[in-house]
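Lecture notes, part 5. Sequence design as translation. It can be helpful to think of inverse folding as translation between two languages: the language of shapes and the language of residues. The source text, in structure tokens, appears below.
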């Protein structure tokens, strides 16, 4: 990856691995945009959905069920999705495919404005043809992930374990459907890092060293 021209660093991560914080540190050190909350806000505005609803619906393997329609107010039109009305006059619901299209569109718009660090959002697949990108996957032992989720979200062990299981399954379903691969396939990434024995600052430092960035 060449830091002298616009670049994209994608951080795919398991929940509870610390990947989100690592991405924030990288963006701060590299003085570039961190694409996470920005994207979520854009999706919320586009679909009038909460982050929780977006995450849940992303894991669905089919069209949203009818009872989810009540959460969409107002119902997104074809024009808000960048789709020609003439081609989709009969569309009456939003699908997980629409969510993927929206995420892809927003991510590429953000990257076109300059260098960025992207957390999740299928970034490794969205930017696979980008001329200057680095794809990273952050994993961690299950017990460490559980402890981190318990601490960050104030959950007991059983609840944290259930949350991790549900989110892992939803994210894997989403990647398999739209990227045609597993997010656990190491061939999708330039770097795969086990966060089990290092903290977020140390891991960010490893990545910065890998791209030849000397911290001041």
């Amino acid at each position: 990856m060449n830091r002298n021209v616009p670049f994209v660093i994608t951080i795919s991560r398991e929940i509870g691995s610390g990947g989100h914080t690592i991405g924030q540190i990288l963006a701060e050190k590299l003085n570039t945009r961190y694409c996470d909350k920005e994207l979520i806000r854009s999706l919320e505005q586009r679909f009038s959905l909460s982050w929780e609803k977006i995450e849940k619906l992303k894991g669905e393997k089919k069209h949203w069920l009818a009872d989810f329609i009540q959460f969409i107010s107002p119902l997104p039109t074809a024009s808000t999705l960048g789709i020609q009305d003439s081609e989709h006059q009969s569309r009456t619901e939003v699908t997980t495919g629409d969510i993927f299209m929206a995420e892809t569109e927003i991510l590429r718009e953000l990257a076109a404005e300059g260098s960025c660090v992207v957390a999740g959002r299928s970034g490794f697949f969205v930017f696979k043809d980008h001329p200057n990108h680095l794809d990273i996957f952050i994993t961690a032992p299950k017990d460490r992930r559980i402890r981190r989720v318990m601490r960050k979200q104030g959950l007991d062990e059983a609840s944290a374990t259930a949350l991790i299981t549900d989110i892992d399954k939803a994210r894997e379903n989403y990647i398999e459907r739209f990227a045609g691969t597993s997010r656990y396939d190491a061939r999708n990434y330039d770097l795969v890092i086990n966060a089990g024995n290092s903290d977020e600052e140390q891991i960010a430092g490893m990545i910065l060293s890998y791209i030849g960035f000397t911290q001041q």
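The translated text above is only one of many valid answers, since several sequences can fold into similar shapes. Residues 31 and 186 are 28 Å apart (CA to CA).
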